[in-house]
Amino acid sequence: xxxxxxxxxxxxxxxxxxxxxxxxxxxxxxxxxxxxxxxxxxxxxxxxxxxxxxxxxxxxxxxxxxxxxxxxxxxxxxxxxxxxxxxxxxxxxxxxxxxxxxxxxxxxxxxxxxxxxxxxxxxxxxxxxxxxxxxxxxxxxxxxxxxxxxxxxxxxxxxxxxxxxxxxxxxxxxxxxxxxxxxxxxxxxxxxxxxxxxxxxxxxxxxxxxxxxxxxxxxxxxxxxxxxxxxxxxxxxxxxxxxxxxxxxxxxxxxxxxxxxxxxxxxxxxxxxxxxxxxxxxxxxxxxxxxxxxxxxxxxxxxxxxxxxxxxxxxxxxxxxxxxxxxxxxxxxxxxxxxxxxxxxxxxxxxxxxxxxxxxxxxxxxxxxxxxxxxxxxxxxxxxxxxxxxxxxxxxxxxxxxxxxxxxxxxxxxxxxxxxxxxxxxxxxxxxxx
Length: 434
Prior knowledge:
The protein is mainly α. The protein has one domain: MFS general substrate transporter like domains (Growth Hormone, Chain: A, Up-down Bundle).
């Protein structure tokens, strides 16, 4: 996200709202808003798209599972680094140009990945894809709010809907296309993103120049004790998140093979469609209810504790296909709550501009996601298939420890206000920008 006059991320979090956004507000939008929402859906689909084809890439390109999982690491590592500077970049070149540069990079690197001849090529190309996605995701919400014809809350709800659809459909599309060829999901993403880029180029008007943001603003924001506490919480949490997402296809397929089944890309895609759907539902519907009834910090600690239990259970039952499927979907339910509650806490905990706080927080948490796939594969190869889940349980426990140790810095959370309906919707979209 970036700083603009119309971007709610730069406004103080007063909790005031002229009126709650309605479904009519959300879906009665100009074509430019729909164009951004479509591109956002495809962008979020790209996150889980590769999950079902990791075993196929490993097998057909003669790569180890550890090498295949580096497709997540390169993507997330570059996304993390870029997130620290996207708000500055958008303030320098403008929101529309930033969107277009991001989309063009995704189209280019996804298309090149479809024609790659080795896993190392795909790893490198996914890094470029991550840069493009960071530029697009970080500015899409500001652009969709700026282009809306009505209350900003309605546009944010539409963006939130696009996110949920993309998170759920990504693994399913990856499974459907991956059952034809592991190259097809990459080519499909390039085509869909190309359509989105063309629509935005034609329909989105050039905006007024955004307010200037220092290139070091996000890095300096980490000096804030409250934000630093939440960033440390997030980096350990995201390690667990991406252990579940990036590593699970391999023991899941192994468990299916042990039962005499050919799981394949379609089977994995179906499981993670359920995971993504569960994540989207709880992030939108369950998280706001729980945070209001229990409070943000109790919700975070409770959810982290339950996620730790899920990881331990996965370590114990990773040879059972049915048990793994159930636990992966349960994990999605908990991750949706955690993403939204943690981001809402970030937005309430400091008086920093929300765009800057979000960039700093997102950059750090994506680093945790980048490390997890790089560690999970070698650890499983050196020990047992359940070991990565036990390590994830440990990192989730460390996440709880970071939150409790730094809790004294979070006194402002829940004390002065609750987010308005529009701000809460924004927390959901930022929180789920995995």
